[in-house]
Each structure stands twice: as C-alpha cells, then as structure tokens.
Design goal:
This protein is mainly alpha-helical. The chain is 50% helix and 10% strand.
Length: 191
C-alpha cells in the first residue's frame, strides 16, 4: 500500500511539474520530424500475468510485427534520429507515468516484457516467474545496472538484476533506484 501511495504521489509530482509541458513538446517534435503519431502503444505483461498497454514516445518508423516480436537488435534500422536521443536520455519512457497512475505499472519494478519474451526468460530462469507478483516498473535495477537489452542473452542478464530487486524490496531500495535512474537520464547513459 505504501509503495502504491508513493507511486501515485511521485507520478503526480512529475506529471504536474515537468511532463505537463514536456509531453506536448516532445509529441510535436516527433510528429514534425517523422509525420507519424508521436505515441506508441504495445501490449506487455503486467502484475499476475495480466496484459496492459504500455505508453511510450515513438522512437521507430512504422510498426513492429505483431505476431513475431523482434529483439531491439533486429529493429535498429527503424530507429529515427530523434528516437536515438529519446532513448539515450530515456525520454521515450516518460509517458509511462500515466501507466503508473492507471495502476498497471509502478515507478520501480521489473521490466515489463512482451509475452513471448517473458515465456522465454521463465523457461531459462524459472524463478523469474516470482516477479509477476509485482507491478512492472518504469525503471528497475536491471535497467540502471544493465540498460536496454538488444538480444535474448542480454535480457537474461537484466532479468537476474530484477531478481536481486525482488530479494531487496523496500521503499528505500525504490528511492535509491530512482536516484540512480536520475543520474542515468542526466548523463544520457541509455542505449
């Protein structure tokens, strides 16, 4: 309950103080530079295995295959020039604060995966299924320690960091991960 209250208050603060003007600005820039819709919605697996639509800024041209999900490394040719910048500073993730307010995500939690990738990770690392008791997060220990995963091997490494998070659940752990995330965003350490 305390984590959920923190998520709501923190998200409202970020939305009112920063995102209220930043989201429209970024959306306009994406539309002006690509001519495409600025937001991207994709089905991900949430808490207790329930699917939800994740909100992100569009960083790629066109649409990914629906029935045959590709890893990031297989889709690098679709990333726009502006998309590279949005990813580097993790700005593409900012609309997910709306997911937090809607209750489908948390500020800190395991990376929200697509069903096929989640199934593959659980097949290789069965204990990863325990993370389904948590809401997925905008940021995670795996995201700040490893970053975006381009291959399945990298996804497995990042998944192990998220298991460490599960063993160390606390509001203080969340606050530390948020502080590390702010450093990653400011330094542009995203891929």
């Amino acid at each position: 309950m305390l984590k959920r209250i923190f998520d709501i208050l923190f998200s409202l603060f970020i939305l009112v103080s920063i995102l209220i003007w930043l989201i429209p600005l970024i959306a306009l820039l994406i539309f002006m530079t690509t001519g495409e819709r600025p937001f991207f919605f994709q089905e991900r697996v949430g808490r207790e295995g329930k699917p939800f639509s994740i909100f992100k800024f569009r960083t790629m041209k066109g649409y990914p295959p629906v029935n045959d999900p590709l890893l990031s490394a297989e889709e690098t040719f679709r990333i726009t020039k502006m998309g590279k910048t949005l990813r580097k500073y993790r700005i593409d993730e900012f609309p997910q604060f709306l997911n937090v307010l809607l209750g489908s995500m948390s500020i800190v939690g395991p990376r929200p995966e697509r069903q096929q990738f989640l199934d593959n990770i659980i097949e290789e690392i069965p204990q990863y299924s325990a993370l389904q008791s948590l809401r997925p997060g905008i940021t995670s220990l795996g995201q700040i320690r490893f970053g975006y995963a381009d291959t399945f091997a990298q996804m497995k490494i990042r998944a192990r960091y998220d298991l460490v998070y599960l063993d160390n659940l606390s509001l203080w752990t969340d606050i530390k991960i948020i502080m590390y995330t702010v450093v990653v965003v400011i330094k542009g350490k995203g891929k």
